Amino acid sequence: MTSPVRPSTVQDVARVAGVSAMTVSRALNAPDKLTPETLKRVREAIEQMGYVPNAMASGLRLSRARLVAAMLPTLVGPVFQEMIQSLDSALNRLGYQLMVGCTGYDAAHEAELLRTVIQRRPDGIIMTGITASEDGRRALLASRIPVVETWDYTDAPIDMLVGFSHVAIGTAVADYFASRGHRQLGIVSGNDARAQARIQAFKARAGELGLPPVTVSLTASPSTLGAGRQGLADILMRAPATSAVFCSSDTLALGALIEAQHKGVDVPGTLAVMGLGDQEFAKDAPPALTTVRVDGTRIGQLAAELIVSRAEGRTVDQPRIDIGFSIVTRSST
Amino acid sequence: MTSPVRPSTVQDVARVAGVSAMTVSRALNAPDKLTPETLKRVREAIEQMGYVPNAMASGLRLSRARLVAAMLPTLVGPVFQEMIQSLDSALNRLGYQLMVGCTGYDAAHEAELLRTVIQRRPDGIIMTGITASEDGRRALLASRIPVVETWDYTDAPIDMLVGFSHVAIGTAVADYFASRGHRQLGIVSGNDARAQARIQAFKARAGELGLPPVTVSLTASPSTLGAGRQGLADILMRAPATSAVFCSSDTLALGALIEAQHKGVDVPGTLAVMGLGDQEFAKDAPPALTTVRVDGTRIGQLAAELIVSRAEGRTVDQPRIDIGFSIVTRSST
DNA sequence: TTGTACGCGTTATCAT
DNA sequence: ATGATAACGCGTACAA
Q1: Is B20's CB less than 7 Å from nucleic acid strand C?
Q2: Which sequence spans correspond to the domains of chain B?
Q3: Is A182 in contact with A250 (CB distance < 8 Å)?
Q4: B261 interaction partners in chain A (CB closer than 8 Å)
Q5: CA distance B259 to B264
Q6: Mean predicted lDDT score pLDDT of chain A
Q7: Which of A7, A226, B69, B150 could form an SS bridge with B284, CB 3.0 to 4.6 Å?
Q8: Between chains, do B60 and A53 touch, taking CB under 8 Å as contact?
Q9: Shortest Cα distance from B18 to chain A (angstroms)?
Q10: How far is B87 from B93, CA to CA, in rounded Å?
Q11: Strand D interface, protein residues by Cβ within 7 Å
Q12: What is the pLDDT of residue A2?
């Protein structure tokens, strides 16, 4: 089984098996249409030559790449991992492969990346966070490729949508704190569009409830322990009476917990801390972290199903899914 | 600019521009070979029709997919992220795209996944951790696709290699602890092949140095806070005199720090803790975590360069790179 | 059940 | 500088 310089093709296999190329193709895609005997001959030839089908050729012929692309702001950071992982495994199960692209929270780069992604004619594209660039939207629309936007909920999606409302989260967390008697609220948060939506909703609800102004500390790095520590320090300096803080990620929240302990501030006695994401470590933090849970696994799963349904020509009756969120109460509030 | 049902092709553009298909192709790939005037006409037609080249067709024609595949045990967990991120951006810069595959630490799945990956005829494949399955190795070898193995160092790589020695790490950490007067050592670790290499080397060196037996606590989930807490608890129960613990990830180490604080064990006074990975949060842990640093960004960068060099026919003079590691001393030891 | 002919969209090659 | 032709490897449609 020495490997030739040029990978073998259906033709090569056909020659060896003494059949036509079509028969080899059928042996792979519709084996029940062949005589058991020929099938066996072909399979032996395939084995012997180490034949591997060329997906570019079949993709070209069928206009189906069996490929799905996912665009993300970043791979670093725990936020999207659960979703990507479940997306990947769901797609694999369904016979598709996943290609990733990182936009780095940069609209121009997103648009450029989308162009090269569309060149591959993927069967679907998963956008994480609503598409930032107008160019990107246009390219996506023009491409006619099925799109699923995720991690946000909008009324004007490009195509399909699996998300949740950041406004609803901001409102719910403000309600949660208020209902437990907190009045002086704070936020430690990153500064992307979704974070802003949460912050505005949080402030708005606090206002409606007659609470004093919310102290907001924005951080450049949305999910580092250090930023969480600094963010809390910042808030306690500017508004020492703050009794509850909403952090825009569990990592920030863990940083805040560490800073609180460092400063001798009792959690939850003096200060309540809430995270976002329900990362694996949340339950093991000291004290166990109350957090907003979003089911990333389910998002990935549903996104995969939507894309594949469309790719295979089925009609999707529910193209807009709000998967919601829940607040997991633990010891930090 | 209403998008037609069928994406337009070079032929369509050619018709509109009043030129041949080849001229359109040249307008994209060798614009300097055209009259400025024709170039302009073609570009207008491209713009007008929203033409996007089909990468499958060009890949088929050229036998170059401009695609690189990366195989990983898992996407969840911070370990490989830095590398993937840098791999992705380096490849993009060089005009390639990245496709990921998750093996889930499962050799059979790895082999199966490799088959489907090879079908796309990527220009290169990046393996993370030495290839587990014999089938996988064979398929890779037979495919003649350039391969870079990473995160480990072996003398018999499939093809190219960018890694570091886990044996050297185990030895170095044992030396580090011993040189600081620690005698009763412990390890909290995951249980994959690379972890085993570190553990064995750590124990061996401790033996050579005449230290008492090392207490090893293996954990199912290699990078969760909870496992770190449990691991340390386990070790302190079985060997209360342990004065230094090597954790196989920073997350485990952070869990150990939390557990130590919980139990009132002073770090580093009574117990020294070392992590692995130098995650972003290591420096902000309480106390700042001493850890083994591996430059994932550099691994990704180098792997991308090796693959692309080979894909473009250049000879690679240094196909085996040991990027080493360093111990970053902070306050936890 | 098996084979023949053609086309998917692109680009290298050779010709003009 | 531009065009005609052919080929990359596969699978549909039709024929035998």
Answers
A1: no
A2: 10-49, 67-164+298-325, 166-293
A3: no
A4: 286
A5: 8
A6: 94
A7: A226
A8: no
A9: 23
A10: 10
A11: A 6-7, 9-11, 21-22, 25, 28-29, 53-54, 57-58, 60-62; B 18-23, 26, 33-35, 37-39, 57, 60-61, 63
A12: 46
Tokens of A203: 């402030």
Fold agreement (A67-164+298-325, A166-293):
yes
User: Shortest CB distance from B56 goes to which of A53, A65, A286?
Assistant: A65
Dist CA A69 CA A102 (whole Å): 11
pLDDT band at A1 (very low <50, low <70, confident <90, very high): very low
| Bond into B73 cis (ω within 30) | no
Is the C-beta atom of B58 closer than 7 angstroms to strand C?
yes
CATH class of A67-164+298-325: alpha beta
> Which CATH number does B166-293 carry?
3.40.50.2300
Q: Cβ of A262 and B286 within 8 Å?
A: yes
pTM of the shown model? 0.92
Question: Is residue A205 predicted with pLDDT exceeding 60?
Answer: yes
C-alpha A216/C-alpha A186 separation (Å) is 6
pLDDT of residue A251: 95
Chain B residue numbers touching A99 (CB-CB < 8 A): 67, 97-100
Confidence of residue A132 (pLDDT cuts 50, 70, 90): confident
Task: Tell me if residue A290 falls in helix, strand or coil.
Answer: strand
Position B4 scores a pLDDT of 57
Positions of chain B with pLDDT under 70? 1-4
d(CA B196, CA B98): 30
On chain A, the residues whose CB falls within 8 A of the CB of B97 are: 99, 101, 116-117, 120
A37-56, pLDDT tens digit by residue?
999 999 999 999 999 999 99
pLDDT in tens, A299-312: 999 999 999 999 99
